[in-house]
Design a protein that fits this description.
eight-stranded mixed β-sheet, Fructose-1,6-Bisphosphatase, Chain A, domain 1, 29% helix, alpha+beta, D-Maltodextrin-Binding Protein, domain 2, binds 6-O-phosphono-alpha-D-fructofuranose, 333 residues
Length: 333
């Protein structure tokens, strides 16, 4: 089979008028940064990159050394290219401005440099999530306000998963496309064209240890799944929870399922567990582009109007029929 690289795929998207040269450059730079992160992640203990960095991030979470390394790789890879107006990262409190001696462009890049990093030390797959917005007109220099756009405005979204293979999953608004890193060549090969999520599923993902904190609609929904063939659903379900959003969502993108980190009494004060701008929004764009649905339980994630860079939301995404059922249970409650 002729091997199509990410570069060729992007040039063809540009030739078809779906992306600009600057967006193609941005995605290629992010892909190069992801390759460098993959190299560091796969060295693990051999490179002394495991364990805590000894610092906390803006979320007050202890940073892993690889969190800091991945963040630095993404910031440094993207600041010189001239395609960005600014960046935002889970690991950085405020907007990261482009250094004055570099040209600025029309895109805003947001990312969670290493999602699920609590799994690093136990050698379980982790990932990088990124989202691309357009800089509002007349806004230079970019401020936090420039980023306050609903997820439906994203120009592109994607994630890398550092698993048995390193894969890059990407949408520019024309379906979802997966690429696998050929380490010998150092290129991403187009291996998963037009990834789609089956409307039905028998597999759900949730951290069941939070059950007593869930809201009644979620308690009802999960309890019905657990009753399986003996309950109102009439069939048995299977459960998975990797506790690495990229891994759990990649499974949904690959074979269907419903992924939930819903509102619960423990995280209600913070608005939820997962971050809107660089976790929920990019994943929601990918899921919808793959024929699935993504909701907070009360509204479409891509319609949420952001007010803060690091705000959190409840996330219920995946196979459309199941997400719609959970939304209906919220409505009925
Ligand atoms: P819990 C990882 O820290 C993360 O942000 C997501 O990747 C993951 O889905 C979730 O938190 C896991 O949360 O409460 O199960 O540890």
């Amino acid at each position: 089979m002729r091997r199509v690289t990410l570069t060729q795929f992007l040039i063809e998207q540009q030739r078809a008028g779906r992306i600009t040269a600057d967006l193609r450059l941005l995605i290629e730079v992010v892909a190069r940064a992801v390759k460098a992160i993959s190299v560091n992640v796969s060295k693990g203990a051999l490179a002394g990159v495991l364990g805590e960095a000894g610092t906390d991030n803006v979320q007050g979470e202890a940073q892993k050394k690889l969190d800091v390394i991945a963040n630095e790789i993404l910031l440094q890879a993207n600041e010189w290219g001239g395609h960005l107006a600014a960046m935002a990262s889970e690991e950085v409190e405020t907007v990261h401005q482009i250094p004055f001696d570099y040209p600025k462009g029309g895109f805003l890049l947001l990312f969670d440099p290493l999602d699920g990093s609590s799994n690093i030390d136990v050698n379980v797959s982790v990932g990088t999530i990124f989202s691309v917005l357009r800089m509002p007109p007349g806004g230079a220099p970019a401020t936090e306000e420039s980023f306050m756009q609903p997820g439906r405005e994203q120009a592109a979204a994607g994630y890398a998963i550092y698993g048995p293979s390193t894969q890059l999953v990407l949408t520019v608004g024309n379906g979802v496309h997966g690429f696998t890193l050929d380490r010998e060549m150092g290129s991403f090969i187009y291996t998963h064209p037009f990834m789609t999520i089956p409307e039905e599923t028998r597999e759900y993902a949730i951290n069941a240890s939070n059950a007593r904190f869930w809201e009644p609609p979620v308690q009802r929904y999960v309890e019905e799944l657990q009753r399986g063939a003996d309950g109102p659903r009439g069939v048995d379900f299977n459960m998975r929870w990797v506790a690495s959003m990229v891994s759990d969502v990649h499974r949904v993108m690959t074979r269907g399922g419903i992924f939930m980190y819903p509102m619960d009494e423990k995280c209600r004060a913070r608005g939820g567990k997962l971050r809107l701008m660089y976790e929920a929004n990019p994943m929601a764009m990918l899921v919808e582009q793959a024929g699935g649905a993504a909701s907070t339980g009360r509204e479409r994630i891509l319609d949420v109007l952001p007010t803060e860079l690091h705000q959190r939301v409840p996330v219920i995404l995946g196979s459309k029929a199941e997400v719609e059922r959970v939304v209906e249970y919220h409505r009925a409650h």
